[in-house]
Design brief:
It contains 9 helices and 10 strands. The chain has 266 residues and is of the alpha+beta class. The chain has a 6-stranded antiparallel beta sheet with strand order 5-10-6-7-8-9. It has a two-stranded antiparallel ribbon with strand order 1-2. It has a two-stranded antiparallel sheet with strand order 3-4.
């Protein structure tokens, strides 16, 4: 396993595997707002439960996580510092892939997973961020942590967002992020035009079959599953909605060496 040059744990370097686990726990805590359940870690990393158990034990010994049986796993401050930088590299990589290389947003997550571990030079990261126009979110609306670490609570608006599935009929807001970066889900939402920056309203709910009828951009009507609605997060309220559109606005990438950067179309 290749070792990282940026972080040291005791006598060993941080490996890609350690980074993947810390990043996954960070994202699950970001999504759930508390501990990361071990069964969710298994699903996200697509590994067997025994492997997760053994790795979590190792991470706990290294002081990177705290594991409470039946409650889940939390990052320690030490683990969070590493995770934040991995997430920062990942989400900037997604922006590079979509905004400059014009890769479809449904493919950006998997591709970024492959290159995030190789961009560990802060000068390169800082230059990348400048070229991208200092974006605040990834293409899916998830926050990009600054170089210094965690964002101030609510700075990006994500702290005030709620799943679309939580809204009642006649309630609505502006989509700010999609929490499931599975390629099929992203392709589906993109096809419907349900992407960050789009206004959306609940027209009806059918509890019997879990179908939710929504109206986007004031006119287009779709029927989506409760599962799809649960991964779409929105900001509600008039003033907040205006703030949301600013948050998810695509930054203007700088032109470099005569490159022709077109608009990224989701």
């Amino acid at each position: 396993m290749r070792e990282r040059s940026g972080y040291v744990l005791g006598e060993q370097q941080v490996t890609d595997v350690v980074e993947e686990y810390l990043e996954t726990i960070y994202r699950l805590q970001e999504k759930e707002g508390d501990s990361a359940k071990t069964n969710e870690i298994v699903k996200w990393l697509n590994v067997v439960p025994g492997t997760v158990t053994n790795t979590i034990e190792r991470l706990e010994k290294e002081g990177l996580v705290e594991h409470e049986p039946y409650r889940g796993v939390k990052l320690t401050e030490k683990g969070r510092r590493i995770a934040v930088q991995v997430v920062r590299r990942h989400r900037l990589s997604e922006r590079l892939l979509t905004d400059i290389l014009h890769l479809d947003w449904s493919k950006a997550h998997e591709a970024a997973c492959k290159i995030e571990h190789d961009i560990d030079d802060e000068e390169i990261i800082a230059n990348l961020e400048e070229v991208l126009g200092h974006p605040k979110t990834c293409p899916h609306g998830n926050r990009i942590p600054p170089k210094e670490g965690e964002l101030v609570e609510g700075e990006s608006g994500a702290a005030s967002s709620v799943p679309l599935s939580n809204l009642d009929v006649s309630e609505g807001g502006v989509i700010v992020r999609v929490t499931d970066e599975d390629a099929e889900m992203l392709q589906y939402l993109s096809k419907l035009g349900l992407v960050p920056g789009v206004s959306i309203e609940i027209l009806g709910k059918e509890p019997s079959d879990g179908i939710i009828t929504v109206k986007s951009q004031g006119s287009t009507i779709h029927k989506i599953s409760e599962k799809a609605a649960s991964v779409i997060e929105v900001l509600v309220g008039g003033k907040v909605a205006k703030q949301a559109k600013k948050i998810v606005q695509k930054p203007e990438a700088k032109r470099s060496r005569g490159a022709d950067f077109g608009e990224y179309e989701q």
